[in-house]
Amino acid sequence: MRPKECKKCQSKRIVKSGFKKLVDRKVQRYKCQECGHYFTTQEKFHHLSQEKIELIHKMYEEKGEQRKIARILGISLKAVQHHLKKKDEAND
Length: 92
Fold this sequence. Notes:
- By secondary structure, this protein is α+β, with helices and mostly antiparallel strands.
- The protein folds into 2 domains: 1-42, no CATH class; 50-91.
- Helices cover 38% and strands 20% of the residues.
- The protein has helices spanning 50-61, 66-73, 77-91, and strands at 14-21, 26-32, 38-40.
- Strand 1 (14-21) and strand 2 form a beta hairpin.
- Helix 1 packs across helix 3 and helix 2 crosses helix 3 (77-91).
């Protein structure tokens, strides 16, 4: 799905600009010719099921390393860190 406009300035002058490498695939990257902003059509954090979020917390509590959790569950390290931080902030 090709974006219709830039996410930053809403210009319609966008061009393909390589790929962004994710854990499990590559995603097309785009560049705005007006403002120079790079973006993809993917959301930053895809919504994880509540079961997967609970699994992240359980694995981490059992001395699991964040990178290992990400690799086993097939999600990004940033997604693991995001959900651990979110839980930590809720406990404070």
